[in-house]
Known about the structure:
Layout: E1 4-10, H1 16-27, E2 32-38, H2 47-54, E3 77-80, H3 83-87, E4 97-100, H4 112-142
Helix pairs in contact: 1-4, 2-4
Amino acid sequence: MQKRKVxxxxxxxxxxxQMAEAIVNARLGETWQAFSAGTKPAGYVHPKAITALAEIxxxxxxxxxxxxxxxxxxxxxxxxxCDSAVEECPVWLGQGKRIHHSFxxxxxxxxxxxxRKVRDDIERVIIDILRSHEQGLMERLER
Length: 143
């Protein structure tokens, strides 16, 4: 079975989209391949995002990149994880059903507890979204 592909789109591609990419690849890697990009990439992955992931056993090197780096990939889903990215979503001209779920930017406070909360929220919400999408696909295939 071919893996489904999901893109997490954010503005800076330094925190939220990076954490979502790493979590999906670590937790659902048998069925999903996750990517991330930013509409205005920061050029780095926030060190506290890397630390927050490491605390739950996920090693992520990450690479902050723009949408042009992933535009040629055919995605099943494109999930915007910040309000700014959804406003700029017309920038995304690729394939894939678009879903929006905003998470607060932990870099604003730069507090490690905020990074942990966003990480945990991303893990819970995004995994639910992807599993629901899988169920929808399976129901359509069974008809």
